[in-house]
Design goal:
Blueprint (H helix, E strand, L loop, with lengths): L1 H16 L3 E3 L5 E3 L11 H14 L3 E6 L4 E6 L2 E9 L5 E8 L6 H12 L3
Helix pairs in contact: 2-3
Length: 120
């Protein structure tokens, strides 16, 4: 009887080890096959992620104005700006721009950093 229980327990552990689980953007562990519903990004979260993404890429933040949705920073001779705005449909739009930028990949790296911070 004891051998039967041991074999059943081992079989159950092996079966569970084969189950696929995914991590939703909010950190919740979800079994495979279950729908993941994500809420639209909030303005505050998007604003914070935009500033952090700029800092991730070595941009020194010189101005932050959440009411206007404006973040300004500098790296070398470049001035980098993030504009965060609410859309009519309730979504949030984030746009990164740079002036006097000699680093052609800078905005792409900032954008990727922002996407990572937003769980995309």
């Amino acid at each position: 009887m004891k051998q039967w229980l041991n074999a059943a327990a081992c079989g159950a552990m092996l079966a569970l080890a084969g189950c696929a689980y995914y991590v939703a953007p909010d950190g919740t562990v979800v079994p495979a096959g279950y729908p993941v519903v994500t809420a639209p990004a909030s303005y505050d979260r998007s604003f914070a992620a935009a500033g952090a993404a700029m800092s991730d890429q070595g941009i020194a933040i010189t101005q932050q104005d959440p009411a206007k949705g404006l973040i300004v920073g500098r790296t070398g001779a470049a001035t980098v700006t993030a504009n965060v705005s609410r859309q009519a449909d309730g979504s949030v739009r984030v746009q990164f721009d740079a002036r006097d930028n000699s680093d052609t990949g800078l905005l792409e790296r900032v954008s990727r950093s922002y996407d990572r911070r937003m769980g995309r």
